[in-house]
Amino acid sequence: MDGCEDVPLALADVLVEPGECVGYVHFPTRGFITLLTPVDGSTHVEVGLVGDEGMEGMPLALGFPISPLRAVVQGEGRSLRMEASAFWQALERSLARWLLMTQDRAHARTFHITHELLAMMRGVRRAGVTRAATSLQDRGLIRYRRGEVEVLDRPRLRSAACTCYDTDRRTYREVLGQ
Questions:
Q1: 58, 42: one domain
Q2: Closest Cα partner for 75 from 29, 129, 125, 126?
Q3: Is 64 left (phi over 0), alpha (psi -120 to 50) or beta?
Q4: I need a labelling partner for 112 at 20 to 30 A (CA). Which of 12, 30, 150, 171 fits?
Q5: 165 pLDDT exceeds 80?
Q6: How far is the first Cα of the chain from the last one, in angstroms, to the nearest whole number?
Q7: What totals of helices (H) and strands (E) does the chain contain, helices first?
Q8: What is the CATH number of the domain that holds 43?
Q9: Cβ neighbours for 39, distance < 8 A, ≥ 6 positions apart
């Protein structure tokens, strides 16, 4: 996975504490991580368990840079670890890809989409969409106002998107013979 490094998960390692900035997200490949929420000053209750099906660091995807949870390695193994800034960039590339795909289907430079709907479709909080959209807008790639998205610079938006956009387009052409 681009931007990730393979790291060991050692039993009982604390990856993040409640109230700390999320510095990394982890995608366990072997082993697992327990997610604990504080109940009082010294007690925690497990609220989640992450293995090779998920990721630790979900607050970032939801638009929060601060963790509300304690993440502890419960089963040793390995993880693909990505820095928070690289993860934000990956979310932005994913949004750029989605905007290009939507423009392809709208056959127009401008189309309607609200932050709420976009957040729901992308599986992130509205704050995450706002952050990514603001970054694309600040770079002059799109304009977003009251639910209307206008693609201002498609070639640069395409450069900002993950390479999966080009792969998707190529596959689409091959399947449909276009």
A1: yes
A2: 29
A3: beta
A4: 171
A5: yes
A6: 30
A7: 6, 8
A8: 2.60.120.10
A9: 45
Asked if residue 37 lies in contact with residue 59, where contact means CB atoms within 8 angstroms, the answer is no
Interval 128-161: pLDDT, tens: 788 888 889 999 999 998 889 999 999 999 988 8
Stated pTM of the model: 0.70
pLDDT of residue 161: 87
127 in the Ramachandran plot: left (φ > 0), alpha (ψ -120 to 50) or beta?
Answer: alpha
The structure tokens listed for 86 are 């690289």
Res 111 pLDDT > 80: yes
Contact 7, 76 (CB under 8 A): no
Number of folded domains that form the chain:
2
Q: Which two tokens stand for residue 3?
A: 């931007």
User: What's the one-letter identity of residue 63?
Assistant: G
Quote the CA–CA distance of 113 and 99 in Å, as a whole number. Answer: 10
pLDDT tens digits, 5-43: 999 999 999 999 999 999 999 999 999 999 999 998 789
Residue 78: which H helix or E strand, with range? strand 70-83
54 and 122 part of one domain: no
